[in-house]
Amino acid sequence: MRNHKATLEQAIVRTNNAYNDEIEKDKQRKILKEQQERCNKLKDINF
Hints:
Layout: H1 2-46
């Protein structure tokens, strides 16, 4: 039974890590999108 519990715990940890990675990726995508929008606004002002 110990083996099953360890495997389940590992699966939970991996799932949690993957979820947290996706949250970080979403934050980075949002930051990148905001930077691109600011850059486009500056281009509009300059041209």
